[in-house]
Each structure stands twice: as C-alpha cells, then as structure tokens.
Amino acid sequence: MTVYGIPNCNTVKKALDWLKAHQIDFEFHDFKKKGITSEKLNEWCNTFGWETVLNRKGLTWKKLTKEEQAKIDNQDLAIAYLKENTSAIKRPVIAQNNKAILIGFDDDNYLKTLT
Asked: Exactly one of 3, 9, 16, 72 is catalytic; which is it?
C-alpha cells in the first residue's frame, strides 16, 4: 500500500495515525519531495473525478484569482496545474496494488475499504 501526500498536512497525519493504529503497513510517497507524474494524476482523476482530486478548499487554490480558478475547467488543465502545485492535490491518496482506492480521510471509508 502506498500513501501519497505531504507530511505536514493534518488530514494526511490523521490517515497515517489511523493506518498505524490498525497495524496496516504502508509506504509514504511525499509528492512535495518526490513529485507526481501526469500519468498518476490522470489515473486519480479517472478514478475519483478531476473535481475531487483538485482541492478547492486549500490555501493553494484560494490564492488564485477568480479568473485563474475559472480557467481550470477540465481534467487536462487541472492536471497541468496540479503538477506545478502539488499542494492543491486532495490528500491523502491511498493506493493498493498500484491502484488508487481512497482519497481524503474518512474513518468509515477506511474501515470499510481497508479492514
């Protein structure tokens, strides 16, 4: 299992604590340090929808003007933006067998999917 995220994100911390408490082994991929590929972002967008992968609640997105935000209106533009601004990726993304299965953190979803 791989957890994609950034270590100082509170939601990522909750997810990592949950996984540790449930004794689930994982590898952590810090996409601030290791980056993220367009292929991986495309996969996540195809799985969850680009509107979900693009974190519109975060500071990175909110720093954009309304005009800049309005221009990101499809998956290709969202992926281009997310490659340059990895902090705007909703996190964490949990992958099992190299396939994304969860995005964000929700205790009930983690229980249903991972236990």
From this structure: 9
